[in-house]
Amino acid sequence: MGWEMKVGQQSLWSSVMKDKYGRGRFEQGNIIAKPTDSFIWKGIVAAWDRISQLEAWSVGDGHSILAWQDRWLGNDVVLEQFTDALPDEMQHWSVADMIGGSGNWKAQVL
């Protein structure tokens, strides 16, 4: 159930737990457990860091990953690593936008 919540799957149980205990901070990863919360929620909170460590991206065709804004290369957003401004038209590129027809990186745009 914790994994379902982490990756955004919407099963009935994960939706109920997230809505009841997530307290509006779920998307930021700041989940907490209060003494009165269920033991299941407390277990998810206790395991959350471990779940996050095991998380990995499946790039696939690259269309669903924002190359500069998602945390798909480690723990940081790639855009935050740049000191120079990235052109506006490139800021919303997906990984697929950077790969040519033969599956190689488009070196001329990188």
Automatic annotation (TrEMBL):
Full protein name:
Uncharacterized protein
